[in-house]
User: Fold this.
Amino acid sequence: MLRFIFTRVSLLIPTFIGITLMVFLLIRLIPGDPIETLAGERGIDPARHAQLRAAYGFDKPVIVQYGLYIGRVLQGDLGKSVITHEPVISEFASLFPATIELGLCAVIFAVGLGLPAGIVAAVRRNSIFDHGIMGVSLAGYSMPIFWWGLLLILLFSVQLGITPVSGRIAVQYFIEPTTGFLLVDTLLSDEKGAFASALSHLALPTIVLGTVPLAVIARMTRSAMLEVLGEDYIRTARAKGLSPLRVISLHALRNALIPVVTVIGLQVGVLFTGAILTETIFSWPGVGKWLIEAINRRDYPVLQGGALLIGTLVMTVNIIVDLLYGLINPRIRHARPGGGGR
Amino acid sequence: MAAVQTTGSQMKIRFDRLAAATALALALTASVNAKTLVYCSEGSPENFYPAINTTGTSFDANSQVYSRLVDFERGTTNVVPGLAERWEISPDGLVYTFHLRKGVKWHNHRANYKPTRDFNADDIIFSIERQWKPENPYFKVTSENHSYFIDMGMPKLLKTVEKLDDYTVRITLNAPEAPFLSDFAMEYAGIISKEYADAMLKAGTPERVDQDPVGTGPFYLLQYVKDSVVRYKAFPQYWGGKAKIDDLIFSITPDASVRWAKLQKGECHVMPYPNPADLPAMRKDPNVTVLEQPGLNVGYLAYNTQKKPFDDKRVRQALNMGINKKAIVDAVFLGSGVPATNPIPPTIWSYNGDIKDYPYDVDAAKKMLAAAGYPNGFETDLWAMPVQRPYNPNARRIAELMQADLAKLGVKANIVSYEWGEYRKRAQQGEHQTAQLGWTGDNGDPDNFLQVLLGCEASKPGGSNIAKWCNKDFEALTLEAKRVSDQAKRTELYKKAQVIFHEEAPWFVVAHSVQYKPVRKEVVDFKLSPFGRHTFYGVDMK
Amino acid sequence: MSVEARPAMRAPPHPLREFWSSFSANHGAVAGLATIAILLFVAVFAEVLAPHSPYLTDSTAFLKPPFWQEGGSLAYPLGTDAIGRDILSRLIHGARLSLSIGISVVAISLVLGIALGLVAAFSRGVVDFAIMRLMDIILTLPSLLLALSIVAILGPGLMNAMLAVTVVVLPHYVRITRATVIGELPKDYVTASRTVGARTMRLMFVVVLPNCAAPLIVQASLGVSTAILDAAALGFLGLGAQPPSPEWGTMLADAREFVLRAWWVVTFPGLAILIAVLAFNLLGDGLRDALDPKLKR
Assistant:
């Protein structure tokens, strides 16, 4: 068992080096010079250009830049944004709670609807519920969420006028970011209506981001339940005359949950991809939008640091899920884990 | 929108205590509701140190906090007293003596720092030397890239900056420079507290000076949440008198259609950069006034006159006749621009109104092309900027329309684009055959357009004349106009130069954009800035 | 979705008829197949079917609504965009682009994925480790972030977007191939071929690979939908196909600013993406059910 944990965790190191190298090289290869990008129509004279390149360390050989970079990363220094001159890590820290808040709500939304939907579909196999739920979830799985978001804005914000179009909270509320999670901060503050405002801002982005995971979870729950329901011990339980509800909730669900939980864990990367698009559509002040902006503005350090932090985070979550899965299900210990799917 | 109580109770107590300091402020706060103005800004400021900023977005955010030695009068380009009450200029134009205002208070809302003295000459010296002298301990803090200070030529221009006494500063120049005062009215020259800087240096956190700004401006910064909101409160002891509004909020909203939706709902009161597509609806909305002012800018398509086939004037003229300018302005500017004929906007003196634009005439264009030896057209590139610029809302869409028009002449145009910095650099190197670009004027002088964009010096590789067009007659006229001081004479010369420009057709001039500012009816006395900035001191709410 | 999770899956050869009877029992799959057939038809005959050129601008008809709305006309059945181009014609031509994106991405990643997967499975040791680590790294970075970074390097454009998407989906094919091959290697027929003296190349392609076809076919058909979706997302962020190309994601990006004014320029391109992606997912699901004996009842 210890060996299993050790091998999994030791894989982190080459992966981490790989990610830093890749992120570093990717960004060095990008055409377009951040210093030129900052200049307007007037441009910039060569002497000053050289001076600024030196100031940002862009003039050294790539391999030296990488070495220096790794050295700093290991000390927790991810550099400073070329645009704002703020440390990358503090910008990340200030924006990350918004992404987490959105991501968590989306997961709660997806699990809250997906799990029961999958169970119903499995128990009522081939019924109209099953077909309906599976049809809808396949549509959800196929949804271009950037379009889905626009449609929801058209309907709920423009036509019906019941949800705000963008942002996290109406500006009249002055909330000190204690935890960074607005739902919590608004409850801690004494501003009336702030919590409701934060919640209404969260509604559409949550639905948009939660749609694909919802579909995946519903489908996964259904197939896991079907598999379990076909097992001998369930048949035995049924034969013993236990009520169907008891059979499903006590026996089947518990066993079916194992692969479902794994799938949820592996959705972290997928969620982040969704977050980039969702945050862009709703002007949600999170790290996804921040990275898109960094790409557009050639903000090397931000893109590097952001991708590194997110890659490391996704990797860590995946490994934890992997370990948990291995603990729950000893059969898997010797086989390789499956991929993340879409 | 109802005026909203924006502060927590603690804040309010502190605010009231401050307000008690002056009778005037006391009288103002006695009114029941705080006046709140929400401005839907287009993006997050880079930071709160104006000297290293380059974007209007950042200047809008930090200029509320700081004051400058001198200021631009709101809504104009006139220079008026700021922290300097008055000044004298020596007859040779080299020595400026500034007499500073007394009793100017620094913002005193920070928990970690309380100012012990009023503003004085030390702060001026410090603010200039921070950008000027590498040995200043703050030279490298946050960034050493003091863009505007350098772009305005200050390192070469300044000889000495001396403190004569606590309220008198003498600046000596190396050469006379007429726009020197205007240069110091720009945002980058915001005055920072030396006392605050020293305190933060001692505490080991010098960069706090730029993150938690302390200024002498009309508003102090209460809160900044990146990509969400910037909150200000009126500074009751502001030297010019407390602002008429109590709370100023920048609601950061990058999407133009969302800004408009918020303005409609009353969630914000002023918005910049509307979508041209939304303008008709804005004009119809009874709660909204659309302020407008022609901008100091021009957008154009430059033909590379050093490359075939555009070295032939007839080809350039033919294309000028073959592109439907009105359709472009209608479809892309959607009323937020006026079709352009000359390389300078009509608001600038010496604009030649007698010149008639090339007519849109496909047949004549075909004939002209055939005469030039291209009866079946040719293939060319057509560069389009990847980004929205003040003079061009959507270069790609314009390129698509031009492409369709050119196809009718048998000219196959391939749209090319690069990332913005790369684009400008390559175009200035002259790598293109045809490329779109534009210009926003700095000071409203024709020279700022004609020599900068069409002069021979600028036509060299890397220069901003991307038509790479160098015409002797045009050059002679514009150089002469730079030397003479009589404006009537200059006007005459510039008008002649525009005739040559028209005949030689180095550009297809697209349009001059118009600055639009939708403002809600409850906002009183908001003034458009010729520089496209947003100043909220002096604005009131009904 | 979970094909990869079943490395030890056995795929006995199906006679085509048996396959078809089980496939056609799945109405969704048949609907998917039919939709794809229609899309293919539309794509091939785009020039004939489209009422206008997708690039033709009409300066008298900016942002005309669809025919059933006031102000619309049958000349432009689904309305026009901001510079007066017929939306229906652009959608029809867009089908061609989206299908070619989907199919070429899958073809390239299938070829590369099989090659890398076979090499990894047969060589084991350092080569295997290196290949699989690289695939892990690619999988660790969120797919869109990676694709964006690649496009940022290569420059925006249809080809580069396709390349980026190919890189992003590649690990799935490598993993499936490797896992199924490793599952097959200890089997008797492989050992038998080995003892007869078959060379590695022959073992790889002739003996083992055909037996791994089923999961790859399923992944490929699902992969087309992923490719269409990812390429559209890149287009939406302005980094995919460039205007005036009628790629659906790019059309959406262009239409965004009119969301409050002209619902049709926003609605139709997205609907087209959804339909195409849904069709390939239905087909993939159907194929999986038909090819996977475990789920067949």
